[in-house]
Amino acid sequence: MMREAMGETRRWQRDGNTNLGTILLLVPLTSAAGWTLAEEGRVEGGSLRRRLSELLRATTPEDAVGLYQTVLLAEPAGLGRLEELDVNDPRSQEELRRRGISAYEVMRICSGWDDVAREWVTDYSITFEFGYPTLTRIYRETGSINTTTVQTFLELLAFRPDTFVARIRGRGKAEEASRRAREALEKGGMLTEEGRREVRRMDEEFRREDINPGTTADLTASSWMLALLLEGIRP
Description:
- By secondary structure, this protein is an all-alpha fold.
- It folds into two domains: 2-121, no CATH class; 125-231, Triphosphoribosyl-dephospho-CoA protein (Orthogonal Bundle), CATH 1.10.4200.
- It contains 13 helices and no strands.
- The chain has helices spanning 2-12, 20-40, 45-57, 61-74, 92-99, 103-110, 115-121, 125-142, 145-159, 163-169, 171-186, 193-209, 214-231.
- Helix 8 packs antiparallel against helix 9 and helix 9 (145-159) packs across helix 11.
- The two termini are 22 Å apart.
- 39% of the residues are buried.
- The mean pLDDT is 93.
Protein backbone atom coordinates (compact mmCIF):
# COMPACT_ATOMS: atom_id res chain seq x y z
CA MET A 1 0.00 0.00 0.00
CA MET A 2 2.81 2.43 0.80
CA ARG A 3 4.53 1.77 -2.52
CA GLU A 4 1.23 2.22 -4.37
CA ALA A 5 0.56 5.50 -2.57
CA MET A 6 3.99 6.83 -3.47
CA GLY A 7 3.50 5.70 -7.06
CA GLU A 8 0.29 7.73 -7.22
CA THR A 9 2.12 10.73 -5.77
CA ARG A 10 4.76 10.52 -8.48
CA ARG A 11 2.13 10.21 -11.19
CA TRP A 12 0.31 13.34 -10.00
CA GLN A 13 3.30 15.61 -9.48
CA ARG A 14 6.94 15.72 -10.57
CA ASP A 15 8.56 18.00 -8.01
CA GLY A 16 10.22 15.25 -6.00
CA ASN A 17 9.21 13.88 -2.62
CA THR A 18 6.41 15.77 -0.91
CA ASN A 19 4.72 13.20 1.32
CA LEU A 20 6.85 10.10 1.98
CA GLY A 21 6.72 10.60 5.74
CA THR A 22 2.97 11.18 5.63
CA ILE A 23 2.46 7.94 3.70
CA LEU A 24 4.67 6.01 6.14
CA LEU A 25 2.54 7.29 9.03
CA LEU A 26 -0.95 7.17 7.53
CA VAL A 27 -0.90 3.74 5.88
CA PRO A 28 -0.32 1.80 9.14
CA LEU A 29 -2.70 4.08 11.06
CA THR A 30 -5.58 3.68 8.63
CA SER A 31 -4.91 -0.05 8.24
CA ALA A 32 -5.13 -0.47 12.01
CA ALA A 33 -8.34 1.59 12.02
CA GLY A 34 -9.91 -0.72 9.42
CA TRP A 35 -8.91 -3.75 11.49
CA THR A 36 -10.34 -2.19 14.65
CA LEU A 37 -13.60 -1.29 12.93
CA ALA A 38 -13.98 -4.80 11.51
CA GLU A 39 -13.38 -6.39 14.92
CA GLU A 40 -15.28 -3.98 17.17
CA GLY A 41 -17.69 -2.09 14.95
CA ARG A 42 -16.19 1.25 16.02
CA VAL A 43 -12.81 2.94 16.36
CA GLU A 44 -11.72 3.97 19.86
CA GLY A 45 -8.32 5.39 20.76
CA GLY A 46 -7.07 2.68 23.11
CA SER A 47 -8.01 -0.28 20.94
CA LEU A 48 -6.80 1.50 17.80
CA ARG A 49 -3.39 2.08 19.33
CA ARG A 50 -3.14 -1.52 20.56
CA ARG A 51 -3.91 -2.88 17.11
CA LEU A 52 -1.56 -0.38 15.51
CA SER A 53 1.20 -1.66 17.79
CA GLU A 54 0.40 -5.27 16.86
CA LEU A 55 0.33 -4.45 13.16
CA LEU A 56 3.70 -2.68 13.20
CA ARG A 57 5.40 -5.42 15.21
CA ALA A 58 4.00 -8.10 12.89
CA THR A 59 5.68 -6.65 9.79
CA THR A 60 7.88 -9.02 7.79
CA PRO A 61 11.10 -8.86 5.77
CA GLU A 62 8.94 -8.51 2.64
CA ASP A 63 7.35 -5.45 4.24
CA ALA A 64 10.87 -4.11 4.81
CA VAL A 65 11.67 -4.65 1.12
CA GLY A 66 8.45 -2.82 0.24
CA LEU A 67 9.47 -0.01 2.55
CA TYR A 68 12.85 0.31 0.82
CA GLN A 69 11.18 0.32 -2.59
CA THR A 70 8.80 3.05 -1.43
CA VAL A 71 11.69 5.20 -0.24
CA LEU A 72 13.60 4.70 -3.48
CA LEU A 73 10.52 5.66 -5.47
CA ALA A 74 10.19 8.87 -3.44
CA GLU A 75 13.86 9.86 -3.92
CA PRO A 76 13.86 11.87 -0.68
CA ALA A 77 16.58 14.30 0.33
CA GLY A 78 18.60 13.97 3.51
CA LEU A 79 18.75 10.19 3.82
CA GLY A 80 22.49 10.06 4.38
CA ARG A 81 24.39 6.78 4.15
CA LEU A 82 24.49 3.72 6.40
CA GLU A 83 27.37 1.28 6.68
CA GLU A 84 24.95 -1.60 6.18
CA LEU A 85 21.41 -1.98 4.86
CA ASP A 86 21.67 1.39 3.13
CA VAL A 87 18.50 2.02 1.14
CA ASN A 88 20.53 3.12 -1.89
CA ASP A 89 22.61 -0.09 -1.92
CA PRO A 90 20.99 -2.51 -4.40
CA ARG A 91 22.14 -5.45 -2.25
CA SER A 92 20.24 -4.27 0.82
CA GLN A 93 16.83 -5.62 -0.15
CA GLU A 94 18.12 -9.16 -0.52
CA GLU A 95 20.06 -8.74 2.73
CA LEU A 96 16.80 -7.84 4.50
CA ARG A 97 15.30 -11.11 3.28
CA ARG A 98 18.40 -13.17 4.09
CA ARG A 99 18.66 -11.83 7.65
CA GLY A 100 14.92 -11.79 8.31
CA ILE A 101 14.80 -8.08 9.14
CA SER A 102 11.27 -6.68 9.35
CA ALA A 103 10.04 -3.19 8.50
CA TYR A 104 9.59 -2.58 12.23
CA GLU A 105 13.24 -3.44 12.86
CA VAL A 106 14.34 -1.13 10.04
CA MET A 107 12.38 1.68 11.66
CA ARG A 108 13.90 0.86 15.04
CA ILE A 109 17.36 1.28 13.50
CA CYS A 110 16.36 4.67 12.04
CA SER A 111 14.43 5.92 15.07
CA GLY A 112 17.41 7.72 16.59
CA TRP A 113 17.52 10.30 13.81
CA ASP A 114 14.06 10.18 12.21
CA ASP A 115 10.84 10.94 14.10
CA VAL A 116 8.65 9.18 11.52
CA ALA A 117 10.59 6.00 12.29
CA ARG A 118 10.39 6.84 16.00
CA GLU A 119 6.60 6.96 15.75
CA TRP A 120 6.58 3.40 14.45
CA VAL A 121 8.54 2.05 17.42
CA THR A 122 6.75 4.10 20.11
CA ASP A 123 3.22 3.30 18.92
CA TYR A 124 2.87 6.82 17.50
CA SER A 125 3.62 8.50 20.82
CA ILE A 126 3.83 12.04 19.43
CA THR A 127 0.67 11.62 17.36
CA PHE A 128 -1.46 10.09 20.13
CA GLU A 129 -0.07 11.89 23.17
CA PHE A 130 0.71 15.37 21.85
CA GLY A 131 -0.40 16.09 18.29
CA TYR A 132 -3.95 14.75 18.44
CA PRO A 133 -4.86 16.29 21.84
CA THR A 134 -3.38 19.61 20.76
CA LEU A 135 -5.20 19.60 17.43
CA THR A 136 -8.61 18.70 18.84
CA ARG A 137 -8.30 21.33 21.57
CA ILE A 138 -7.47 24.07 19.07
CA TYR A 139 -10.22 22.97 16.67
CA ARG A 140 -12.81 23.08 19.45
CA GLU A 141 -11.64 26.58 20.37
CA THR A 142 -11.55 27.99 16.84
CA GLY A 143 -13.62 25.83 14.50
CA SER A 144 -11.12 26.78 11.78
CA ILE A 145 -9.31 24.07 9.85
CA ASN A 146 -6.57 26.44 8.66
CA THR A 147 -5.94 27.95 12.10
CA THR A 148 -5.95 24.49 13.67
CA THR A 149 -3.48 23.11 11.14
CA VAL A 150 -0.97 25.95 11.43
CA GLN A 151 -1.26 26.24 15.22
CA THR A 152 -0.81 22.48 15.66
CA PHE A 153 2.22 22.60 13.35
CA LEU A 154 3.71 25.37 15.51
CA GLU A 155 3.01 23.45 18.72
CA LEU A 156 4.63 20.31 17.32
CA LEU A 157 7.68 22.21 16.07
CA ALA A 158 8.07 24.00 19.39
CA PHE A 159 7.69 20.68 21.23
CA ARG A 160 10.39 18.80 19.32
CA PRO A 161 13.08 19.89 16.81
CA ASP A 162 12.34 18.67 13.31
CA THR A 163 14.49 15.67 12.41
CA PHE A 164 14.34 16.40 8.67
CA VAL A 165 15.75 19.88 9.27
CA ALA A 166 18.38 18.35 11.56
CA ARG A 167 19.52 15.94 8.83
CA ILE A 168 19.55 18.55 6.05
CA ARG A 169 20.74 21.66 7.90
CA GLY A 170 22.15 20.38 11.18
CA ARG A 171 20.90 20.10 14.75
CA GLY A 172 21.54 23.79 15.42
CA LYS A 173 19.18 24.92 12.66
CA ALA A 174 16.54 22.46 13.85
CA GLU A 175 16.72 23.86 17.38
CA GLU A 176 16.62 27.40 16.00
CA ALA A 177 13.43 26.56 14.07
CA SER A 178 11.86 25.22 17.27
CA ARG A 179 12.84 28.39 19.09
CA ARG A 180 11.19 30.52 16.40
CA ALA A 181 8.01 28.47 16.71
CA ARG A 182 8.01 29.03 20.49
CA GLU A 183 8.44 32.76 19.95
CA ALA A 184 5.47 32.82 17.60
CA LEU A 185 3.38 30.87 20.10
CA GLU A 186 4.34 33.23 22.92
CA LYS A 187 2.68 35.98 20.88
CA GLY A 188 -0.41 33.86 20.34
CA GLY A 189 0.49 32.10 17.12
CA MET A 190 -2.51 31.95 14.80
CA LEU A 191 -4.85 32.98 17.62
CA THR A 192 -3.83 36.66 17.76
CA GLU A 193 -3.01 39.36 15.22
CA GLU A 194 0.46 39.85 16.72
CA GLY A 195 1.04 36.11 16.61
CA ARG A 196 -0.03 35.86 12.98
CA ARG A 197 2.42 38.60 12.06
CA GLU A 198 5.16 36.64 13.83
CA VAL A 199 4.15 33.46 12.00
CA ARG A 200 4.43 35.28 8.66
CA ARG A 201 7.89 36.57 9.62
CA MET A 202 8.93 33.09 10.65
CA ASP A 203 7.65 31.66 7.36
CA GLU A 204 9.61 34.25 5.38
CA GLU A 205 12.76 33.45 7.37
CA PHE A 206 12.33 29.71 6.81
CA ARG A 207 11.86 30.21 3.06
CA ARG A 208 14.86 32.52 2.86
CA GLU A 209 17.09 30.13 4.80
CA ASP A 210 15.69 26.98 3.15
CA ILE A 211 14.43 25.53 6.42
CA ASN A 212 11.73 22.95 5.71
CA PRO A 213 10.24 21.25 8.80
CA GLY A 214 8.91 18.34 6.76
CA THR A 215 8.72 15.83 9.61
CA THR A 216 6.61 18.28 11.60
CA ALA A 217 4.26 18.48 8.62
CA ASP A 218 4.05 14.67 8.56
CA LEU A 219 3.18 14.60 12.27
CA THR A 220 0.54 17.27 11.70
CA ALA A 221 -0.98 15.03 9.02
CA SER A 222 -1.03 11.98 11.30
CA SER A 223 -2.62 14.07 14.05
CA TRP A 224 -5.34 15.15 11.61
CA MET A 225 -5.93 11.56 10.51
CA LEU A 226 -6.33 10.46 14.11
CA ALA A 227 -8.79 13.30 14.72
CA LEU A 228 -10.75 12.18 11.66
CA LEU A 229 -10.80 8.55 12.82
CA LEU A 230 -11.69 9.24 16.45
CA GLU A 231 -13.66 12.50 16.31
CA GLY A 232 -14.95 12.68 12.77
CA ILE A 233 -13.21 16.05 12.30
CA ARG A 234 -12.52 16.49 8.59
CA PRO A 235 -9.77 18.82 7.34
